[in-house]
Amino acid sequence: MNIIRHFDLELADLKRSLVSMGNMVERTLSIAVDAIISPTVEAREQCRVLEDQLDTLENAIEDRCHHIIALQQPMAGELRLVIAAMRITSDLEQIGDLAESLAKRAAFIARNKGATNPPQIETLGRLVLGMNRHAMEAFITGNLSLASGVITDEDQSDDLTKECYEGIQNLMRSDPDRIREYTHLLRAASLLEHIGDIAVSIADETVYLHKGTIVRHHHHEQP
């Protein structure tokens, strides 16, 4: 097998590993979002187990990237792929951490007095799930229009988060006996917003990979 062919196979294997990690993150996040919409205790352990697996996968992908850079000395587009892969792997692991924290909030609410969700919580959760899914799909397929859509969704995510805060604060005032539960719900809304921000970061990496343009913090330059 010639050197170029071997390098191509290594890059293809790297992409497959990213797809596997992305699918695992989507599963973890889906469990956590469902749990905060309809609080359950079980979701916390499910997310914890998946998060442990994500940590292992992150380390394996990072090691592979270091191996490729050290031994293959990739140039131009290939180097951008490896650099973007390392950044996205870190982003995905962070989403897994945040999803686990989201499940912990849901478990607390489920174990105690419960809480009434403002309707925007479910809308925000479903939006963030979609942003994460589309960001990974854009990265793997090179679909810049899909990446652009994720970046655009950030404004809606921010607006929904503010509406969640307002709704939860109103519920706190009307139902002070559940103040602890609503505090956890406030934190859940913040976690969802943060996850959406990370999805945007992954979309930014897609633009960087395929255009060589850094648009992070400069979304007016998006495709």
Plain-language structure description:
With 223 residues, this protein is mainly alpha-helical. It has one domain (3-221): Up-down Bundle (Methane Monooxygenase Hydroxylase, Chain G, domain 1). It is built from six helices and no strands. Helix 3 (76-111) packs antiparallel against helix 6 (179-211), helix 4 packs antiparallel against helix 5 and helix 4 runs parallel beside helix 6. The protein is elongated, with a radius of gyration of 19 Å.
Topology at a glance:
Layout lengths: L2 H35 L4 H31 L3 H36 L7 H23 L2 H31 L4 H33 L12
3D shape: elongated
Average residue-wise pLDDT = 90
From the 3D coordinates, which CATH architecture would you assign? Up-down Bundle
**Order of H and E elements:** HHHHHH
**Which sheet architecture does the biggest sheet show?**
none
**CATH topology tier name:** Methane Monooxygenase Hydroxylase, Chain G, domain 1
* Spans where pLDDT lies below 50 across 5 or more residues: none
User: Which CATH C-level class is it?
Assistant: Mainly Alpha
First CA to last CA: what distance? 38 Å
* Share of residues in strands: under 5%
> Which structural class is indicated by helix and strand composition?
mainly alpha
The radius of gyration computed from the alpha-carbon positions, rounded to a whole number of angstroms, is 19 Å
Number of strand segments? 0
